[in-house]
Each structure stands twice: as C-alpha cells, then as structure tokens.
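tl;dr need the bound structure. longer version: we got a ligand (FE3-S4 cluster) that a collaborator sent over and nobodys looked at where it sits. i said id run it. heres the input, straight from their email, havent touched it
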Amino acid sequence: MNNAKKFWIETFGCQMNVHDSEKVSGTLMAHGYAPVATMEEADLILFNTCSIRDKAAQKVFGRLSQFKALQEQGKKFGVLGCVAQQEGEAIFKRAPHVSLVVGSASYTRLPDLIAQLDAGEKRVTGLGEASDEAFETDFTRRDNPHRAYLTIIEGCDKHCAYCVVPFTRGKERSRTSASVLEEARRIAESGCTEIQLLGQNVNSYRDPSPAGWSFAELLARVAEVPGLRRVRYTTSHPRDFHPEIVQVMGENPVLCDHVHLPVQSGSTDVLRMMRRDYTREKYLERIATIRACPRPLAVTTDLIVGFPGESDADFERTIDLINEVHYTGAFSFKYSPRPNTESLTWGDSIPEEVKAQRLAILQQRQQDIQWHDNQRYIGRTLEVMIEGYNPRHEQWVARCSTNRIVNFTSSGLRLAGSTQRNGLPVFSQPMQVGEYVHVRITKAGGNSFVGEHVAAPGPGTPLAGPALPGVIV
Ligand code: SAH
Ligand code: SF4
Ligand code: F3S
C-alpha cells in the first residue's frame, strides 16, 4: 500500500455532500488510492462543492487559488459536486490547475474517470445530468462508527423558483427498498446504532421495485432493523409530508423525536412565488398533525428572507409563523439569486440592508423562542448518545433524540485516557463515544443543554422534572 496514490477530500454543503464524499473516498480506496490527513501529502486533491448560495459557490474558488502552487509539485486538483455540475468546463478557465470536474449524477462513472486521469489525460469531465442511477457503492468509507448516513433518494424534481439543486443533482431517483434495507442491516451489523436517511426530499421517496413502498412504509421497516437504536431522516418537503409518516413515528420510538420541515416563508403569496406548492394554512395543518403525535416531536425549519417582492407584511407573516410554531431550531438565509433558476429573471428587488435587517430580526426572535422553550427542560432526564469529550470544559458532548446537543459532567466516572480511532476519541471504560446514557438537565441555552450523568431510569420510572405541556418539545 506504500506505493498507493494519496488523496485528500474537502467537503462543503449539506449532508448529501458529506455522504457523497464518504462514497467517493471508498471508491478511490477500492481503486488503489489511500486517504491522507493533509492536503500537502496528497497526489489528488478533491473539493466536493456546494452551490446553494453565491457565497458557498465562491468559497471553492477561494480555496482553489489558495493552493494553486501545489500543482507545481505534481498534484492534481478535482472539483466535484454542485459547483462542478453548475459551472462545468468553465471551472478550467477560472482555475486552470484543475484537471477533473465531476457532478454528482456522474459519480457512478468515477472509477472510469479516475483511470483516464491516471492514464495522463489533462482534463477529464463527468457532467451528464440524466443519470437514472443512484450513486451506489459497496466501498463507502463511513468515518463515524456510531452514526451512518444512508441515501434513499437522490436529486430533486420540485423546481422551487430560487433553487439550483434540480440543476446540480438531476432528477429524483429512489433506491429500491431491498437495497436500502440491506444496507441498513449491514450498517447495524457493523455495530453502528444510528442511521440518518438522506435525500433532498426524503419523503418524496417511492420504491421503484414492485413492492412500491411509500416513505412511511420504508421508515417503519428501517426502524425495525435489529441493532438500530436511532433512525433520523432529512429533509422533508411539506407537500409530501403525509400523516402516515407521523403515525409510524408515533408507533416506534427508534424513529427520533425530530422532523426537519423547511417552510421558507410564512406568507402564502411568497410561497406561491417560490413555487413551494403549499399555503401557510396547509403547512400549519402538517404542523398540527406532528403535534398530535402521542410522543412530542421537535420541529426545525429553513427560512429565506428577502425573496424578490417580499413586502414588510409578508415578512411579518414569517415572524408570526415562527411565533406560532415554536421551532426548536431554524436555519435562516438571505435570498441569493442563482444561475438557471426561475427567480433569477425577477431581479433581486430587496436591498441588501433590508435583507440583513430582516434576517437579524428573525434570528433574534427565533433565539428568544428557543431559549425560553428550552428552560422547561431543566430537571428532566434525557437519553443521549455520547459523541465526544471536551477536555477544556471537562464535559462529555452528546446528542438527544430531538438532535439537540447535551454537554454533561459525570462525577465518579472520570476520563481515564484517550486514543484516536477514525478521527474520534476513544475512551477507556466505563463511558465511551457511541454509548447511550441518561443525563439530568441542569442548564439550558438557546441551542444546547448542560446536565449531569444519572443512572438510567428503571422500567416504568417517569422522567424526572416537570412535565412539559406536550405540544412543544
Ligand atoms: N430540499 C430542501 C432544501 C435544500 S437546500 C427543501 O426543499 O427543503 C437548503 C436550504 O437552503 C433551503 O431550505 C433554503 O432555505 C435555502 N436556499 C436554497 N436556495 C436558496 C437561495 N437561492 N437563496 C437563499 N437560500 C436558499
Ligand atoms: Fe431546492 Fe425546492 Fe428541491 Fe428543496 S425542494 S432542493 S428547495 S428545488
Ligand atoms: Fe449545496 Fe448541493 Fe447540498 S447545492 S446544499 S451541496 S445539494
């Protein structure tokens, strides 16, 4: 393996990209490349890029120019992902030291494209858009032994007016339920206890095999895979968020207490312009279904401010919506005009300072809501999965079922030494990364909790602390 070519990959963007990088790494390793810890050691340097907003897309050109000099040492540069698909061969003009440009719909061809590069070709591209296949590989290199991503659907057919994804990731294509379940079983057999199902719109999943399962059916079956303790999924589109999904979540607590349901705007007029295919009222109906689940579920969202034509009154509707829904978290963005999209032709009518002001108001309000809602957790006991240890604060870092971070101390159980495995610290017994423990919450911030380790509540023991009103977690 000493003579193996070495690669280094840097990833931008969403979980889909993070997981694609795991698949690309596995594919490269199966074709004689070895991963290295720094760019300087690598022969092949890859950037897996994001094009969702202009800032994200520009980042990669900044990174590329920063390391241009490395080309003189014989290193090859490749651009993968959404900027690759978006910009195509124009990347060679802007960054002539790049020799490989591949969009995600062409990753099934990667071994072939890499062979061309190894054979000495100066510029290799994989930019076909019309792939019918999902990018599947037997070689996926998962970095986290406790939590695994699993793609169930690729691409997007929704064509929201502002969004590049349908152009960068091609049309929607679901994997067969058999292949999803087989991979879920394999992941569980490796000792991993948490799976996150991925797709730009996971709930638009439709099993292409004769079984023809819906997303809800698939979710129910994945949650039954022996060994799995947590199953999450992201992202859900409100249009296809049918009540059956909430029903199966209510029936099996392995399905985590969290739904990410991007609303984008609280104004039906803006939603119509965005081509989101639902009204404010329809969205709130979905929320009501989620709130009716026998187990309280946390809801998070994505929001865009400053969409072309968004009036003060429209923006007020968004503020009003976050006041009503009480999200446990929200990602909010200023509208960014993107190539090829429908709204590009409508101009960018909201001035930058108005966008900035609206974003600040929105984020402040949302933080206040989160902080206030989270206080009610003080005194409650939550089950968490340990993700690491922060020696500076002498705290364990963990995550609860709703996906919030819980930092906790453990009197009596001190860290006895640590080593590194797959980039994650591994601790000596009795507690280690990947383990599930119970934590009593003592302090709550807007985005995370602080607590202390307690013995697990016995069967039937009610959770400690005041009961929550139930509708909001
Ligand atoms: N498929 C997911 C979203 C993927 S993109 C969905 O439909 O919900 C993640 C988020 O980026 C979006 O939810 C949206 O809030 C934001 N986004 C997408 N395009 C954007 C643009 N042109 N400007 C600003 N934010 C954008
Ligand atoms: Fe983009 Fe809309 Fe598709 Fe989400 S559903 S990826 S926002 S086009
Ligand atoms: Fe970005 Fe592509 Fe994901 S544009 S958000 S990396 S699908």
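gonna send this back to them w/ a short note. The domain at 133-372 is CATH 3.80.30.20 (pyruvate-formate lyase- activating enzyme).
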